[in-house]
């Protein structure tokens, strides 16, 4: 009888904990390309649960219309998503605005949300470059090279910096930067 009670308790706890981990489960489904399953899981949520920052982010990931996806991402940021999703939300919004050529929006999203990720900062530097603020972009890439990050990330920033130097007719500095790779 005792074994039976423990077994039932484990099954019930497993079911309850499975329901509580829904947000991360949706993220895993999306990452593994199980988009229909993720949509179904989101559709089963209550109205209040569907409006959380995390679930707005998941809806954005499943949305094929870029404008609508960006709306979900903006909504997600306003609703305080988990910190582990926040930087990715900002990056995806910055990517969307970059593709649309809305460079001021890239700056607004990155600056207002105080994004700290290197890919997001690189997009911010690109937006500065494309709006004619090459000096600000070079200053930003200089700062990025001095900050943390993996060797691979720093190589990409070095390439960005070399491109900016070339645009400023500083060929020798650009060559030196690229040779350091």
Folded structure, characterized:
The chain is mostly helical and 181 residues long. 80% of the residues lie in helices and 0% in strands. The protein is built from twelve helices and no strands. α6 packs antiparallel against α7, α7 (83-100) runs parallel beside α9 and α9 runs antiparallel to α10. It is elongated, with a radius of gyration of 22 Å.
SSE inventory with pairings:
Elements: H1 2-20, H2 22-31, H3 35-43, H4 47-50, H5 53-62, H6 66-78, H7 83-100, H8 103-112, H9 118-130, H10 134-146, H11 151-167, H12 171-179
Helix pairs in contact: 2-3, 2-5, 3-5, 5-6, 6-7, 7-8, 7-9, 8-9, 9-10, 9-11, 10-11, 11-12
Query: Count of DSSP helices?
Result: 12
User: Average pLDDT value?
Assistant: 78
For the largest beta-sheet, the strand count, sense and barrel status come to: none
> Which regions have little confidence, pLDDT < 50, spanning 5+ residues?
1-21
Structural class: mainly alpha
As a whole number of angstroms, the C-alpha radius of gyration is: 22 Å
> Care to count the β-strands?
0
Element string (H = helix, E = strand): HHHHHHHHHHHH
Beta-strand share of residues = under 5%
Quote the distance from N terminus to C terminus.
68 Å
The portion of residues assigned to helices is over 70%
User: What does the overall shape look like?
Assistant: elongated
Give the tags:
elongated, mainly alpha, single chain, 181 residues, disordered N terminus
Task: Compose a concise summary of this entry.
With 181 residues, the chain is an all-alpha fold. 80% of the residues lie in helices and 0% in strands.
């Amino acid at each position: 009888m005792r074994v039976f009670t423990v077994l039932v308790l484990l099954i019930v706890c497993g079911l309850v904990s499975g329901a509580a981990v829904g947000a991360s489960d949706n993220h895993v489904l999306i990452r593994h390309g199980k988009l229909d399953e993720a949509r179904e899981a989101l559709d089963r949520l209550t109205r209040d649960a569907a409006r959380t920052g995390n679930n707005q982010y998941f809806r954005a990931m499943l949305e094929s219309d870029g404008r609508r996806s960006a709306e979900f991402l903006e909504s997600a940021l306003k609703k305080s998503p988990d910190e582990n999703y926040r930087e990715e939300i900002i990056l995806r919004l910055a990517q969307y605005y970059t593709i649309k050529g809305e460079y001021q929006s890239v700056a607004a999203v990155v600056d207002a949300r105080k994004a700290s990720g290197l890919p997001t900062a690189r997009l911010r530097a690109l937006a500065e470059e494309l709006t004619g603020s090459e000096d600000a972009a070079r200053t930003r890439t200089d700062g990025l090279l001095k900050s943390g990050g993996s060797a691979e990330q720093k190589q990409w920033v070095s390439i960005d910096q070399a491109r900016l130097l070339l645009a400023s007719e500083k060929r020798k500095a650009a060559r030196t930067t690229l040779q350091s790779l």
